[in-house]
Amino acid sequence: MEAIDSVLLVSGTHGNELSGIYLHHLIQQGLYRTERDSLSVETLIANPAAMDKGLRYVDQDLNRQFNARARQNAQSGNETRLAHSLRETYADREQQMVIDLHNTTSNMGATLILLSSSPYYKKMGAYVKQQMPNAYILFEDQIAWEEQAYLCSMGKNGVMIEVGAQAHGALQFEPLELMKDMLTAVLDFIDLANRNALPALTPNYEAYFYLGPVTLPLDEHGVRTAMVHPRLDGRDFEVLRRGDPMFITFSGDDMVWDKDEDVYPHFINEAAYCLSHVAMELAQKKTVSLS
Ligand SMILES: [Zn+2]
Description:
It is an enzyme of class 3 (hydrolase). Keywords: Hydrolase, Metal-binding, Zinc. Belongs to the AspA/AstE family. Aspartoacylase subfamily. This is Aspartoacylase. The chain is α/β, with parallel strands linked by helices. A hairpin with a 4-residue loop joins strand 9 and strand 10. It is 24% helix and 26% strand. The chain has helices at 18-28, 48-53, 68-72, 78-90, 119-131, 173-194, and strands at 6-11, 40-45, 96-103, 109-114, 136-139, 158-164, 204-215, 226-228, 245-249, 254-256, 264-266, 278-289. The structure holds zinc ion (ZN). The site of zinc ion (ZN) has 3 residues, from loops.
């Protein structure tokens, strides 16, 4: 991969996710430093109208507007206009990396979301994991780059940093520290890779590979008939094996994972997925090998 000569650091793609928005302020005030020898860093609040209202979005989710289908179905609205103008301004910058900062209400700690498992991103995961052993590396490479709808996929290179648990609209110390640590590691990686100065990387590490969402059971009126099981809630990235409880009905009956495959739930009870009744996303755990 060619050297990355610029980073577009995006906050406020979701207007109520405050770690990234406050990190943006800290950078403006010189309280968090992004300077690196081999690249320039430009910061951006992606959805100021949503931020001013304290909302995830005004009309539609901005972080789902960047694949061909979203462009074709584009209705008029704040986020459609924003997506168009962001693409016009930034998408053609060949040697740019977009880093998009997010919060989740799920207990995901610091999670680096990678949309490609190319050698470059595998190495980035290894480096970040080496700097932050408790971080999670989540590959969402199940679809091609062009089909990705996330803002960070608008150009050729991009990643997301997802930090939780933090309620949307709240700002807490620990998630902000985790976000700073992960951003520092990602910026360092890009700079070191540019200068061919990466340290020795562990040849193998554990990472998660996205499978898909699980929705809550609903009755014929679209009302939920169960909740995430209390033994699973808050246990993002822990294994779920056949027979483990997944949901609990309102009368107290367990509903279990009934497949043979071990899976790793995350985005468990994410507040922003409320309307779609998504209870969690599932991943597989695999060993990533750099060789
Ligand atoms: Zn977000």
